[in-house]
Amino acid sequence: xxxxxxxxxxxxxxxxxxxxxxxxxxxxxxxxxxxxxxxxxxxxxxxxxxxxxxxxxxxxxxxxxxxxxxxxxxxxxxxxxxxxxxxxxxxxxxxxxxxxxxxxxxxxxxxxxxxxxxxxxxxxxxxxxxxxxxxxxxxxxxxxxxxxxxxxxxxxxxxxxxxxxxxxxxxxxxxxxxxxxxxxxxxxxxxxxxxxxxxxxxxxxxxxxxxxxxxxxxxxxxxxxxxxxxxxxxxxxxxxxxxxxxxxxxxxxxxxxxxxxxxxxxxxxxxxxxxxxxxxxxxxxxxxxxxxx
Length: 293
What we know:
Layout: H1 14-35, E1 37-40, E2 43-46, H2 50-56, H3 59-89, H4 96-109, H5 112-132, H6 143-170, H7 175-183, H8 188-216, H9 220-226, H10 237-246, H11 250-292
Antiparallel strand pairs: 1-2
Helix pairs in contact: 1-11, 3-6, 3-8, 4-6, 5-9, 6-8, 6-9, 8-11, 10-11
């Protein structure tokens, strides 16, 4: 007898699809439509891809694009290893677990628009302390010092996210793995390389993706700290988009946001592909292990 297939359960997906269409698909269509028209005194004029061509043909866009990529690379190089190191050093049980988790969550609880205000106070104090020992730290007018300040601010704010992702993965490792490694005389590096790092690989890919998207489109923190200065040295893609919006250049801003959206989608697809390869490798490795046993 042929078993019939009942697909009526898919009807339960309709509310989620409607909500997704309302909050994502419809606004995206409106932004795309706005990027193809120039609005002048409530009159919409079709301009096609003119705004896209104007943005992509300027050296200013590519300089800002390279600056944003450099900033994201610096953030990932610092926060991913630092988050792993902190997660490895945190206790797995005991009263200190709650203390560590609460302490690490505090930076994430601060509102984004307050981060720059808090750090402007920190940086002023640091500038005065360094000046007492003869060191110059002009984070307002020196481009390099401003970059250092913004990177420190981001590391303080977002490293906790990487820590939580890595720590949640580390706590799922059975204690028997560590006991076996101790019996075999494995070094601390080998334990990390062959036990802990493979377990964290999936969450690390997710952490890299989340931190790349956030840092690549960063806006509030650097803008409120120094407004893209000095001399546009910290002008990132998100700040330029914000300038268009504040100047009521909504059509160019829509085109710029679509360009950024496409970049993020491409990077997300790359990370999604890497994550799928990781899952398939784990599945294949598990099957091979079971077959050998």
